[in-house]
């Protein structure tokens, strides 16, 4: 029985691979996608998401437009994101019927979870603005979410600042609300995604699949490798880059891809230098109960195998 999933995305290049993996996997029923400001503006993240489903021949997957700015702060991130993502993805304009659904993403999340059987896994892979707003607007949805699998966070090192990972950093107040919502949370941080890299050789294998998803994934992986090699090279791994969001989707399909610790995790929302840091209490110094299954490692060969297997499929 496939797992029902909703993806909340700030589609950029790795979100796109995550969307294709979720849409094409026989182990996932992709209920829909909600878009949020993040890697680029909401206009582009929404257009990119529509282009992805249109390109792989799945225009029927519903897409809902979400919030265009963080809940409290006004930070936006350009520069690094542009080199790794760009604004418009390198995909054709929509021509197979992919259509933006009417209504706001936050309202759709609320309606969908209230009407659900409590069986839809929520997978945010961008800033957590939509998710936090949905919880604040209608707290009753929390008990209807069986698990939240978040791409975000970092313990060893950040990528937006020395302390913080981008998704959490862009809207730390939203992240704090979600992390403390009381439901089962699996966090797929940089500590895991930086240990599951995809290489130029893997991109060639993706292209050789001869499928729309394989071609697009190859394009996006090569752009990511160019961007990472230029802005934040992976230690000892030139010619390879993380595809963060797709690892979160693969973790829903096969949880054994991650190594996790169940620990107390919270988000810094006040400090100047460590704003947006996921504070990981591995030694339980806070006296708080564990609330997050925090991934500290990932199985890179399994990740690449799963991408090749799933993106070799067609709609
Ligand atoms: O830090 C990596 C995360 O930030 C990924 O989700 C990427 O798409 C960006 O949103
Ligand atoms: Ca993302």
Structure description:
This protein is α/β, with parallel strands linked by helices and 315 residues long. The protein has one domain: Ribonucleoside hydrolase-like (Inosine-uridine Nucleoside N-ribohydrolase, Chain A, Alpha-Beta Complex), CATH 3.90.245. Helix content is 38%, strand content 19%. It has twelve helices and 13 strands. It has helices spanning 13-24, 42-55, 80-84, 105-115, 129-137, 166-170, 172-179, 190-193, 200-208, 212-231, 244-253, 300-311; strands at 3-9, 28-35, 63-65, 100-104, 120-124, 148-151, 185-188, 197-199, 240-242, 258-263, 265-267, 278-280, 292-298. Strands 4-3-2-1-5 form a five-stranded parallel β-sheet, sandwiched between helices. A four-stranded mixed β-sheet has the order 6-7-13-10. α2 links the parallel β2 and β3. The longest helix has 20 residues, at 212-231. The protein is globular, with a radius of gyration of 18 Å. The model has no long low-confidence stretch (mean pLDDT 96). Alpha-D-ribofuranose is lined by residues 10, 12, 14-15, 38-39, 125-126, 151, 159, 165-167, 244-245.
Task: Sum up the structure in keywords.
315 residues, alpha/beta, Inosine-uridine Nucleoside N-ribohydrolase, Chain A, 5-stranded parallel β-sheet, 4-stranded mixed β-sheet, 12 helices, binds alpha-D-ribofuranose, binds calcium ion
